[in-house]
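Shipment paperwork, digital attachment
Item: protein structure file
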Amino acid sequence: MSPPVALARPLTLPNGQVLPNRILKSAMSETLGTPTHAPSAALPVLYRRWARGGVGLSITGNVMIDWRALGEPGNVVVEDDRDLDALSAWAAAGASEGGAIWVQLNHPGKQSPSFLNKGTVAPSAVGFGPELARAFGVPRALEEAEIEDLIERFGRSAAVMKSAGFHGVQIHGAHGYLVSQFLSPHHNRRTDRWGGSLHNRARFCREVYAEIRRQVGPDFGVGIKINSADFQQGGFSEAESAEVIVGLAEAGIDLVEISGGTYEAPAMTGRSQKASTRAREGYFLSFVEGLRSSVKVPLAVTGGFRTAAGMEAAVQDGAADLVGLARTLAIQPDFPKQVLAGDDPTSLVRPLSTGVKAVDKVAMLDVTWFENQLARMGQGQEPDPDLGGWSSLARTIWAQGSQAFKIRRAKG
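Attachment content:
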């Protein structure tokens, strides 16, 4: 295969930042924070490895903006500059080969397990369905002053990231977390200015973006990861998503990454996608193609890419400006470099199993197996694509105990 043309082209974002190529490392939760939720020494090692692999833009796993609201054990939390040195080391490692590195900022809302936090908050006091009710409690509806405080926290965390040397931040507005909950008519049943019409439901998202921009200025990258749809009855729809994205583009956002699904309807894993969609590659590419005529803001699409040809076609056809990879980079960190060199690698991501269905359900290998790969790279080792299901399970229990599985039952 000859070297790709479209993927190798630099991309200039609206804020003037230039990305060296069109390959994005999409966010994966590393769970490599310290017991005090600071960045551990493993994170710079991991991101330096991805930088060597040729990624044009790395987006970190979700960093929480509030110590009171954790999504997982091992989350990094940034409320102020107390961990600035560790953050700076992380930023420098991610940019060490000329690519850019952004931080994904998040608040889990009600999507935070009962054992991890005393209570959860959300736009409305709407719990999860029967399948997830044991893992997640019914949240408390946010008060007006609390909403305003959370908006300011997003901005403050972004300002710290700028001081640390990161090139931008991404608002996590997908996969059923707090920003996504505000957008969804299923989760957001408020009757004040934060709920009801799409304009009101999108207010939190708009205000978070505006506050971040106010605190970081026009030259710092600000993007969002947003669902094409929730794939859930009564949830956020494709038409609503398109309207929100158009508004954010008009407000000056620098990058929009398209995904889809929630814990209750995990479309981002590809399980609910038609065989024809999986074969084409790019689970949400059709949505991006339809959106392209409405916005000029750079669009990234993540999910389902397995080959150099599929990635090149997505950008060459003009629908996507960036192609996102996640799990592939957990086991093939040199995948971008190989693609850009004209090699023809194929993703080694495969169904994972211990061979015992009951054990697979508890072990949540779709999450823990990949976390073990990230941990290996964080220790300076290469990933092990041949790691068996039982070996992965043993390593997870050794490192994290039963807590590793309490939270992941909702992620499968």
